[in-house]
Amino acid sequence: MYSHLITYTEPNGASAGLYASYWTEVIAHNIQTSERLELSKSVPVMPGRHPASYYAINAGMIAWIDKNQGEKDKKFKIRVLDLITRKTKTLNVETTEPFDIAVSNNLLVWRDRFWKRYDLAKETLFTPPWIPPGMEDAQGSYRLSAGDGTIQWTYTGDDGAVRYFIAPVVHKK
Question: Is the pLDDT of residue 112 over 60?
């Protein structure tokens, strides 16, 4: 949820079997005006991953992973809608099976074999550290997200303790 908008999915296709992938529709709904934005009809749903792993809303932006069945190349695309300008942008990046997308202002992060970060203002892609500096020997799992000019890690240790780390995004001159 962001401001008066909520995002959700509506299944639009049948699964090819119990463990097969299928496609779902992602919708943003303004609970104040009842406006409905149909973002995509072909967001993947994969076994073991929550549908929200494929879309995110934050800071006036909606980002989603799409596999538009009408396009010729059938590759996964990452798309971003600016809620102020109402313009949608498709990132020009190579993807395999992206998921765990997060967006904030001009930053996107997602996982596609390893974590990636994209700066929308500078149109640059790079691989952020998958663990925060100083935690290289810690045992547990990490998840990245985007903040206002920051990369954020959520670390869950083997003991169940959850820790949060934040680092600013610094651009080289």
Answer: yes
